[in-house]
Amino acid sequence: MLLILFSISLCFSWVSPATDSIIAVYTAVSGMTDFPEVTKVATVNGIQVNYHDSNIRQTIPRQQFLMESFKQAYWDDLSSIGNRHSTVTKDYLFTVMKSMNQTSVQPDVFISRSEPNSQYKSLTLSCLVTGFYPADIEVTWLRNGEVMSETLSSGVRPNHDGTHQIQKEIEINAGDEDQYSCQIEHSSLAEPKLHQSEILGNSEGRSHLGIIIGSVIPALAVIFGIIIWKRQRRDTNTHTVMYTVVSGIEDFPAVTGTGVVNGVQTGYCDSNIRRCIPRQRFMAENIDTKFWDYISELVNSHSDMVKENLNTVLKITNQTSGIHVLQLIRSVEVTEDGSMKRSMRFGFDGKDYISLEPDRMRWVASNHFAVKTKEKWDSDQSWNNYWEKYLQEVLVQDLNKYLEAGKEYFGRKVQPEVFISRSEPISQYKSLTLYCLVTGFYPVDIEVNWLRNGEVMSETLSSGVRPNHDGTHQIQKEIEINAGDEDQYSCQIEHSSLAEPKLHQSEIPGNSGGLSHLGIIIGSVIPALAVIFGIIIWKSQRRDSPSGTYTTAPSQ
Predict the structure, then answer these.
(1) Per-residue pLDDT tens for 15-52?
(2) Is there a single domain that holds both residue 343 and residue 381?
(3) Which has the closest alpha carbon to 406: 226, 296, 281, 293?
């Protein structure tokens, strides 16, 4: 595991009858899991007075006299400053790591499948590995633990943010999906990781992603902001709130909650911290503390409720041991003309359990275990009245508030980057495959087409629009062609960030499985950063020390 520390020490002192000093130390960490990326400690005359980290995003007093002497508004101001400085420190760390070629970023993994576009084609599994650095990586499809050699690879390709991605595909027989797994080996991982292909079919505009975080059931992926979402029309805004309750796992929050607006995670809460935390800068800067207090209280109430729901389901299903997961997903979709679509559904251990039919305010059981729950909830008028008001009023009000807070973010337009590659046929009976990867665009709505001599080709395979790790999106379209016809094909992109559709020709050399030709511009790294980088050397404080010091250790 690569562990890198980056510290900045800010020290100010003044001369009085005795010298006093205040020091704030920000430490950014890379290569450690289950630890805040940035922490800050402030001391006065050698005594710690407050603490802040990038997980809680709040500044916490460490002395009783501070809690009694300063109002909450003061700590809110310090929290805002701490969040801004944490972001700057994290950016410095990444910049210095890139300049020293010491960056190590773990990959995100998305597994999808494409149905055959004719009766003569097999089902295709795709393993997309993205957001990793450095570029060296091993991605292998396994069947019942054995390495499969007959795979197609996109080769390692650059992302728009300096990280990389690769996609491996394999054709299989329908029904054999549970025999396959995608193995990832990378310097950012302590050991190889397996990702199972427990997924649903993938359609043109929808991506069903099977994401496994460690050994936890795929449903937990939403906790970390990796959301299973559908392609959204540009005249529609959506607000989704998800809760995940887990039993049978130690050292993990029993309940986690996340809020998503238009596919972007906006907030997070869990049963350990008992407070909602903004996940976007515009949420932290444009929404006041009083609202976060209100949201935290509401989410804590709903967390307690959904935890009780899990206990009830465990009793109904006679489950007394093992790992079990209950998820609650509530959402509202509002169009420009004011029409509304509401939904609320529960899932247990990765399968549908019960859902709400909002027009009639009646519950629909997905299996015989849920019938008892349905009967109870259908007869509880106050329960249904509460959720009807919540879905129709509260979620919509919050959606409008978040859209206003993030109007610049949601209104931005980011042009896509396009990478065209090809995979040679793995046998004499296979055609050559061209890939058009379009990535880094926002908003989500986009049209990608393969053209042959200017005519749109319909027989293409699409990954569907998928989320990138930075809030932008990506999509890949592929087409099988005859070798030698490459110059007849082009990939056409239509997106709101482009003044007109753009064509990208397929004039490319063959792409090998493990190589990428990358143009990554680090920029000019300020030499002074080399002085900042390192671990602070603390020296004992003297009451008669001179004033005005700013000290860091030299780089090693």
Answers:
(1) 444 577 888 888 887 755 456 888 888 888 878 888 88
(2) yes
(3) 281
